[in-house]
Amino acid sequence: MIELRHLRYAVAVAEEGHITRAAARLGIQQPPLSQQIRALEAAIGAPLFRRQPRGVELTAAGRAFVGKARAILRDTELAVEAARRASRGQEGQLAIGFTSSAAFHPFVTGVMREMREHAPAIKLSLEEASTGELIEAVEADRLDAAFVRSPSERLDNLTITHLLDEEMLVALPDHHPRARRDPRRRISLSSLADEPLILYRRPTGPGLYDSIIAACRAAGFSPKVAQEATRMVSTLSLVAAGLGISIVPESMARLETAGVSYLRLDRAAGLVAPLALARKKAPAGGTLGRLLAIVTRRVKDRAGV
Amino acid sequence: MIELRHLRYAVAVAEEGHITRAAARLGIQQPPLSQQIRALEAAIGAPLFRRQPRGVELTAAGRAFVGKARAILRDTELAVEAARRASRGQEGQLAIGFTSSAAFHPFVTGVMREMREHAPAIKLSLEEASTGELIEAVEADRLDAAFVRSPSERLDNLTITHLLDEEMLVALPDHHPRARRDPRRRISLSSLADEPLILYRRPTGPGLYDSIIAACRAAGFSPKVAQEATRMVSTLSLVAAGLGISIVPESMARLETAGVSYLRLDRAAGLVAPLALARKKAPAGGTLGRLLAIVTRRVKDRAGV
DNA sequence: AATTTGCATATCTTTTGCATATGGATCGTC
DNA sequence: GACGATCCATATGCAAAAGATATGCAAATT
């Protein structure tokens, strides 16, 4: 029967290209390692290594196997970690993720503050990443839940709860002629057609990027994307530097960025930044249950107001 | 150290909900199984099962772990299979996949025939699936190579070689007024704007579906998709039944489907069905090398003619 | 209260993974 | 061309660990 030991040994031998050296690295002697490799090859029914006078070399079968073996060993580590985390979760630990654009939203910060106050014993660990990475982390049980934007792709595995829709604002340099207008008046999206646009796009996943492009298309023009930034804050820095304008969620406007003004958009633009909570579909007990209770109550309160 | 044995045992116990019954299923006695489960829990540092008077029940940690354990055990099986296949490949075995729309193409059938003739000792195993499924199978080493349509998504892992572009024909019922026209004259895509269209779409992946929609958009109209079929042949049956027209690769026209006529499209439509070969990026030796040699020679020959 | 059910503990047996010692093949060097 | 070095394979012994048997203990059923 094949065991993880065989995989660990095969990977070590493949990496060292030497049975003897691999044995040293594994902290065992050479003969037993030779034995185990032979046993593995017998179980598979195919040679994984070509024995050569100066070491060993992977066969085609070996390459195919060792690649997958590495993944299996990594997955095993992850499984152990996930179990540990789930167990700690029952006793008061919670790992939460945010997209960078959600981190400053008062809803999110409010929930976190309330968790701290009402259950100070629960250790919170926070992580910032893109929506795509967060979804992946929740699926892999590396996070208990994540605040994400645009629940675009439905995943059977996850429950994605829509929390609220946030208005999006136009960010433009202070010295821009439009920045002097009455700040209460709303402007139309199409009036920005000629402005160079700076957008925020993470390497993984679509997120808000596509919604903005789509809204511009709906407004009858194709935006001139002057630059793409990988972090939302750097988008604002580029705006301040006068390279163009941008469109960001309202909560980002709370960051006092010198040199940036904000304008409200016409409601007709239909441009909103949805905020959602993603979590595993499995029954949520323990600390995650506490978080969900707080979140759902706050969503209800908002609806009432 | 955690071994696959622990995972196998944990999965069995989780599925049976009983240590005793799981032991029977595993062909061992109850006490050693209890021991191994304990050892696993100790290694993880968290209990996976809640011992109850009438059996055992998964904890939250247990659920997280067992789910991943199942995947790991499956992956291990796949790794072994992949290694076996790779090994057999060296000695003369080759697993090839097709999309259903490529299976009848003379290029593909020609390559297969030549393989048979020049290397009859090589055992070919063929599989038909959608482009998406085939790509996945090649990535997972379940197939050595696959003839696919539209190499849309670039994958770091794979080499996708474009082989040729095939013309696409309009398929329409015999009794359709247009079917009586001179078969040599080409018709424009836009002249089909009002016809109900029957398209072929596999549940997974885009494939030709999107190219057709895109070409119609480019021609200035949005096609009326009357029906979608999951197999290309059933598309033709629906056409024969008079439910609408369709657009299929030229090689499909070789299937003599009673009641279906074909018309050539205007070149301006720019509607072609690309045929490509997908394979792992790894150095291709053995039987796969033979196949590649035949394929590249034939591509060159075509270019010459 | 008695019986059954099912996991845990204790002790013994057997398997097997690992160590030590040695043999054999190939390469480089004198 | 012989010699030593390098590296894998084979042989044998030992010790750790997986598994078997017997028994204990707790909760639920009757």
TrEMBL record, chains A, B:
Keyword terms of this UniProt record: DNA-binding, Transcription, Transcription regulation
InterPro entries: BudR_PBP2, LysR_HTH_N, LysR_subst-bd, WH-like_DNA-bd_sf, WH_DNA-bd_sf
CDD domains: PBP2_BudR
Similarity comment: family membership: Belongs to the LysR transcriptional regulatory family.
A single Gene Ontology CC term: protein-DNA complex
Domain HTH lysR-type: residue ranges: 2-59
Role, per record: NodD regulates the expression of the nodABCFE genes which encode other nodulation proteins. NodD is also a negative regulator of its own expression. Binds flavonoids as inducers.
One Pfam family hit: LysR_substrate
Organism from which the protein derives: Bradyrhizobium macuxiense
GO MF terms held by the record: DNA binding; DNA-binding transcription factor activity
Name the UniProt record assigns to this protein: DNA-binding transcriptional LysR family regulator
